[in-house]
Design brief:
This protein is α+β, with helices and mostly antiparallel strands and 261 residues long. It has 10 helices and 8 strands. Among the domains are: 67 residues, no CATH class; 58 residues, no CATH class. Helix content is 46%, strand content 16%. Strand 7 and strand 8 form a beta hairpin.
């Protein structure tokens, strides 16, 4: 068992464009599209916006992809950002975090580690920074999670024996599942979990804006800032308007002048 205080966010997938299909579309419309954009998510968002206004060919103007998307964001034309999707794996986070995260619905998809199928006998636990920074409070937290962890192990073993006696004809997988789904009831919100998430650019901006704010819960704020750091490198034309400020307690928060895009 380990105590974790920092999350990890991995960008594992992104939107790609089909250049051949785009050329077919442009030829069917007897027009052209010149762009200096290179990122798939940014290209998709720009293309969606230009379809809305038919701003191709002579109507395209000389605006760069970055300037075009900056104008889209300033106009709050956020619907075109919904076409660009990224995929992440987030680890080192608590069940408390995922309870808050999954409240974000539109534009999101989730696949989370299952406590019914995965044995938590060797699981880790996430400790809030405010507790970890105080030796006495850390000790209290550590004792609590150790007690819960031991209770889980004892229950899981006892339940396996009970189910084996009472329901010997069950498949081995179902025996394990029934033992774990009952034993998990004693695990705390601090139990570490892993979650695969997919979200479009508009949904990610909403997440960063609200969960990266100074008054957001600290754990989800750290994840929001980690996502923002990735996205400012991945798609600067869609996330470059955010700034990160240091708060009085030394933590960080994100802000932007383009809210509710």
């Amino acid at each position: 068992m380990h105590i974790i205080t920092e999350p990890a966010v991995y960008l594992v997938g992104r939107t790609q464009v089909d250049s051949y299909a785009i050329r077919e579309f442009l030829e069917s419309e007897s027009t052209t599209w010149l762009t200096d954009g290179e990122n798939g998510g940014e290209l998709v968002s720009e293309l969606a916006g230009r379809v809305c206004y038919l701003s191709f060919g002579e109507k395209q103007g000389r605006r760069s992809s970055r300037d075009y998307l900056a104008n889209i964001i300033s106009m709050e034309h956020g619907s075109v950002l919904e076409h660009a999707v990224w995929n992440f794996i987030v680890t080192g986070v608590s069940r408390s975090f995922t309870h808050e995260l999954v409240r974000h619905r539109a534009g999101w998809a989730y696949s989370q580690l299952s406590q019914r199928y995965v044995d938590e006998s060797d699981t880790d636990f996430v400790e809030p920074t405010i507790i970890a920074s105080d030796p006495e409070l850390h000790g209290t937290c550590l004792r609590a999670v150790e007690t819960s962890h031991q209770a889980y192990r004892s229950l899981a073993e006892g339940l396996r024996e009970k189910i084996e006696r009472e329901q010997p004809d069950l498949k081995p997988r179902d025996k394990r599942k029934r033992a774990r789904e009952a034993a998990r009831s004693v695990l705390p919100n601090a139990t570490e979990t892993k979650i695969f998430i997919s979200a479009n650019a508009r949904a990610l901006r909403h997440f960063v804006e609200y969960r990266g704010a100074p008054d957001a819960e600290p754990e989800i704020r750290r994840v929001a800032l980690a996502v923002l750091e990735i996205m400012r490198q991945e798609a600067p034309s869609l996330f470059g308007d955010y700034t990160v400020e240091v708060l009085p307690d030394g933590s960080e928060a994100a802000t932007t002048v383009h809210k509710k895009v």
